[in-house]
Write a structure and sequence with these properties.
The complex is a heterodimer of chains A (391) and B (335). Chain A has 391 residues and is of the alpha+beta class. Helix content of chain A is 48%, strand content 13%. Chain A has three domains: 115 residues, Butyryl-Coa Dehydrogenase, subunit A, domain 1 (Orthogonal Bundle), CATH 1.10.540.10; 112 residues, Butyryl-CoA Dehydrogenase, subunit A, domain 2, CATH 2.40.110; 139 residues, Butyryl-CoA Dehydrogenase, subunit A, domain 3, CATH 1.20.140. The chains are: A alpha+beta (391), B alpha+beta (335). Bound molecules: flavin-adenine dinucleotide (FAD).
């Protein structure tokens, strides 16, 4: 526990990162004015190619990536401020989200010089969108059991290369993406589990790739099934080391779990509810209490997230603490629509702003996914328990 | 901010481990004296940590002493260590003397002159109180209440007949904030301890031929406890940051709301883990859960504090709650 105290010690956003905030707010004004709250509540599911291009033009994609690859060469603190502002405003970040948050850092870390030079600059311009191919129909939490398989292709155009067969599922925005980075088996057998898995880059326009959208419970289609039938991939499709995919994926997921995105998924709803309460201040003490309780948790979590960012800046990789934040954060995000629903019907005779109701309906329905995507609540609790010395 | 040296902290926690072990706490609860415990704490010099150097103190800011107050909560230190630290600092700020060397607890009064807490401080924690009504501060002797409260603690009462030992005025200081912020830190400390005790117990105790800690349901409960312990520690730390010498009521509110939940969840899950043995008087878990539950409703409970936050949010003209949090709740860097 002392180590937790050290990780979460007082950490402040440096002045130069704070100074960045005003510029972001100014930029976002126009974009958020165009989108009603129930659209902004899509949070990091809101897809808008134009918006991503505009961010790229600003130099705000790949913010922590070195200049030589087209990045912003700024600190994780700057990135925290940017992401915080984007999410708080409900900006449509989905198009570039995976590429910016996971793929570019992954390529920077494990890619060859050639791969970096070829792939990262386009990500930073907002011109190349990526998706993550981890889950398969029979491999969810038990990711090491993936069966999609790439075998070395002796007949490849460059003498190397791979032939890929298999299937991925739940792939967010595969139908709008240019590339998938997938975890597949490249050697050994399913019984070898983590051994023999690799990360490979798949051009989704390659022959043999079929992407089929899956409608979600609100009737929208953001995730997909992706089928691979004898898909031929070049030798440099391999990212990192053959057989090292498991370790790479876990490093990637640590990134996934530590940012402000695990705090702000319901913030657009919270804020239009706060506006609604402001118009009838004092009329509903129970609602003011509930709002305060959610804000208290959000504020403490934000402090924890800033602290984690500080540790990233110092070169640490606090994987366990990131899991802790994600669990606490998604729980708070999920409690938000529950509390608002509990209180909004306190007077059935009252007319409630239809936009608030629509936003509430959306968040009530999608919030269960907050604690599924990127590893379920149960899996995270298992990780935390291991960190506590219980497993 | 000055970070407390590990050596200092270790010497303080080492001291607490000797003077405030479970036996000592039980003896105090049974009616024994806290004089020796106070003497040891007083001699350590840490009680003057917040006092300016010119007044013979260490001149630390509140953020620096957070680990000390956490440690006091972790060990259920039965004397008003943190409260005395604050009382001495406030008296010095007013250019006054407290007029007592012993422990001084904090006693915010309402306009009507009643203690702003449904639960009174324990009689054993201090012989005197710093009493606030409006901007008027007095130091008054405490007397031992006649009846134990529902938690088994002997409450203190203000001795209204006695002359105040000291009297001074201070503007812009809310003793309710200070008493509450300390309560939050004590809760966070005790939560940490209960988590550690629970993990130890579950690693030891076997059922079905294996340690209970090998069962997934148990592991998940511990994970949830750890989450609450961590968020409570963070919230309580922010609650005790003073930008210009004063606490922020809203940060205290945040700390009290978060630590209320943590205390509730951690006691419940600890009880689940210890099962029947945890319900006994003989087993030491009860010392902590009783303290935690009592603190939950000391100096205002969750709804009192949370409402302040909700009201401030809707009274402000913030575009987003992130703006509100940054502006009103995030601590400023301390020089
Ligand atoms: C909105 C959304 C977007 C997604 N986007 C992507 C994406 O872009 N790319 C991608 O690869 N995946 C994506 N996923 C998939 C996500 O990663 C999986 O849903 C998740 O890993 C769980 O797998 P599963 O759904 O097969 O559930 P299962 O693994 O079948 O789990 C079902 C239940 O059993 C529990 N469980 C499983 N194993 C254990 C265990 N050992 N102990 C205790 N409980 C256990 C789980 O916690 C869960 O409660 C997305 C999911 C959602 C909901």
């Amino acid at each position: 526990m002392t180590s937790f105290a050290k990780t979460f010690r007082a950490t402040y956003l440096p002045a130069e990162a704070e100074a960045f905030r005003a510029e972001i707010k100014e930029f976002l004004k126009e974009w958020t004015a165009k989108r009603p709250p129930h659209r902004r509540a899509r949070s990091w599911q809101g897809f808008d190619r134009e918006f991503s291009l505009a961010l790229g033009a600003k130099g705000w994609l790949g913010l922590t990536i070195p200049k030589q690859y087209g990045g912003g060469d700024r600190s994780f603190f700057h990135r925290f401020v940017l992401v915080e502002e984007l999410l708080a405003a409900g900006a449509p970040v989905a198009a570039h989200w995976i590429a910016d948050r996971q793929s570019a850092p992954l390529l920077l870390h494990y890619g060859t010089q050639e791969q970096r030079e070829k792939l990262i600059p386009a990500i930073c311009r907002g011109e190349a969108f990526y998706c993550i191919g981890m889950s398969e129909p029979n491999s969810g939490s038990d990711l090491a059991s993936v069966r999609s398989r790439a075998v070395p292709d002796g007949d490849g155009p460059d003498g190397g290369g791979w032939v890929l067969n298999g299937q991925k599922i739940w792939t967010t925005y595969a139908h709008e993406s240019d590339y998938m980075i997938a975890l597949v088996r490249t050697s050994g057998e399913p019984d070898d589990r983590q051994k023999g898995l690799s990360q490979i880059l798949i051009d989704l326009k390659a022959p043999g790739v079929t992407v089929r959208p899956i409608e979600d419970l609100t009737g929208e289609a953001h995730f997909n099934e992706v089928f691979f039938e004898d898909v031929r991939l070049p030798a440099d499709a391999l990212i990192g080391q053959e057989g090292n995919g498991w370790a790479q994926v876990n490093a990637e997921l640590a990134f996934e779990r530590s940012g402000p995105e695990r705090i702000y998924s319901s913030i657009v709803l919270l804020d239009i509810w706060a506006d609604f309460l402001a118009r009838r201040a004092g009329a509903n003490p129970a609602a003011e209490v509930a709002l305060g309780r959610l804000l208290a948790r959000m504020a403490a979590l934000r402090e924890m997230s800033v602290a984690i960012t500080g540790r990233l800046v110092e070169g640490e990789s606090p994987v366990l603490e990131a899991a802790l934040i994600k669990e606490l954060g998604t729980t708070m995000e999920q409690d938000t629509p529950v509390e608002i629903a509990r209180l909004i019907g306190d007077d059935p005779d009252e007319v409630v702003d239809p936009e608030l109701l629509r936003t509430l309906a959306y968040v009530m329905q999608v919030s269960p996914a907050y604690s599924l995507r990127g590893g379920t609540r149960e899996i995270l609790r298992g990780m935390i328990a291991r960190g506590l010395g219980l497993r | 901010m000055i970070e407390l040296d590990d050596i200092f902290l270790d010497s303080f926690t080492g001291l607490l481990d000797t003077v405030s072990d479970h036996g000592a706490i039980r003896a105090v609860e049974a009616g024994g004296s806290t004089a020796a415990i106070w003497e040891a704490v007083q001699e350590s010099g840490f009680v003057d940590a917040l006092l300016p150097e010119d007044d013979g103190g260490a001149g630390f800011d509140t953020a620096t002493v957070v680990p000390l107050v956490n440690a006091a909560g972790e060990r259920l230190l039965p004397v008003a260590f943190a409260q005395t630290m604050v009382a001495r600092m406030l008296a010095a700020r007013a250019g006054a003397e407290l007029g007592v060397d012993g422990a001084v607890t904090l006693w915010p009064l309402s306009e009507e002159g009643t203690l702003r807490s449904q639960v009174a401080p324990a009689a054993w924690e201090a012989g005197h109180a710093l009493v606030q009504q409006g901007h008027q501060f007095t130091v008054r002797p405490l007397v031992v209440g006649k009846q134990r409260d529902g938690f088994g603690y002997i409450p203190a009462e203000l001795d209204m007949g006695a002359e105040p030992l000291a009297s001074f005025t201070l503007d812009g200081v809310d003793l309710l904030d200070w008493a509450s912020a300390i309560t939050a830190l004590l809760i966070a400390g005790a939560c940490n301890k209960v988590l550690a005790m629970t993990i130890d117990y579950l690693n030891e105790r076997k059922q079905f031929g294996r340690a209970l800690s090998k069962f997934q349901a148990i592991q998940h409960n511990c994970a949830v406890m750890a989450e609450h312990a961590v968020i409570a520690a963070t919230a309580a730390r922010i609650g005790f940051t003073a930008d210009d010498g004063n606490l922020s009521t809203l940060r205290v509110a945040m700390a009290r709301s978060v630590t209320f939940d943590a205390a509730a969840q951690i006691s419940a899950l600890a009880h689940a883990g210890f099962a029947a043995i945890g319900i006994t008087e003989e087993y030491d878990l009860q010392l902590y859960v009783r303290a935690l539950k009592r603190w939950q409703i000391s100096f205002g409970s969750d709804s009192f504090w949370a409402r302040k936050l909700g009201q401030a949010r809707i009274a402000g003209t913030y575009d987003t709650s992130a703006d509100f949090i940054r502006d009103r709740l995030a601590p400023e860097p301390v020089a």
